[in-house]
Write a structure and sequence with these properties.
By secondary structure, the chain is of the alpha/beta class. It is built from seven helices and 13 strands.
Length: 245
């Protein structure tokens, strides 16, 4: 006798935490349009419902109306999330590149992206851009089958850096002058600080060192902000491995 095959789900759908704890949930708005108009899911289809906080349940489409659908929620499901809760603190690039970075970081399982102003990257991202990035992160979580929603904040001033790093267990700063990939002392959380393409100023390097952010070089080539951020994120998350629950 062989073990039964794992259940297959048509899609992952976001359900707020309070609704995920109930026996049924309603899907409306953009989620409804994507699943039941674009993808044409139907009654009886099975979904994976997640709350963005690390919980997942089986779900079955019970009814589809003209503007909303009702899901019946079933048993809890295991999740596979990175063992490391990684925060990217990033000098804001141009808007289209920032959007791409958020999408890919959320797919990887990055816990947060925090946009930072620095001497060579003084630009900020307005409230409309941040709202759009949060929508992009939500879509990327669902597309990738994740259960935790990346938090997007900013733009943060340089003097907020200590506060942004206070809650993490380890820190590194990407810097061409840095050394090899850092090895954290098994923290549950860490941050990677990604500077502008113009590089850090000496004063910024001194501040990062004072905050125990070890310099890390990704090699001899000059990478764009979003490339460097994702290389760093992928390397750190892969080294930490998955956490299944």
């Amino acid at each position: 006798m062989t073990d039964a095959a794992p259940p297959r789900f048509a899609a992952t759908v976001y359900v707020p935490a309070a609704a995920l704890a109930a026996s049924a949930a309603e899907i409306a708005g953009a989620g409804y349009r994507h699943l039941f108009r674009a993808r044409r899911l139907a009654v009886g289809d099975r979904l994976r419902a997640v709350d963005g906080e690390g919980h997942a349940r089986e779900a079955k489409v019970a009814a589809v109306g003209t503007s909303a659908a009702r899901l019946e929620l079933g048993a809890p499901l295991a999740i596979a999330e990175p063992a490391l809760r990684l925060t990217l603190v990033v000098a804001a690039p141009r808007p289209e590149r920032a959007s791409w970075l958020v999408e890919k970081a959320a797919e990887l399982g990055v816990a947060a992206v925090r946009w930072l102003r620095s001497a060579h990257a003084p630009r900020g991202l307005g409230t409309a851009a941040i709202a759009r990035h949060r929508r992009i992160a939500l879509a990327a979580m669902q597309q990738s089958g994740g259960a935790r929603l990346a938090e997007i904040t900013g733009p943060h001033e340089w003097d907020e850096l200590a506060r942004l790093l206070a809650a993490v267990g380890g820190c590194c700063a990407l810097d061409p002058r840095g050394g090899p990939m850092p090895r954290f002392a098994a923290p549950g959380s860490a941050a990677a600080v990604v500077g502008p393409e113009g590089g850090w100023t000496e004063a910024e390097r001194e501040r990062l060192a004072a905050l125990a952010c070890d310099g890390w070089s990704l090699g001899p080539r000059v990478l764009r902000i979003e490339t460097a951020a994702l290389v760093a994120a992928g390397s750190l998350l892969q080294a930490a491995g998955p956490r299944c629950a």
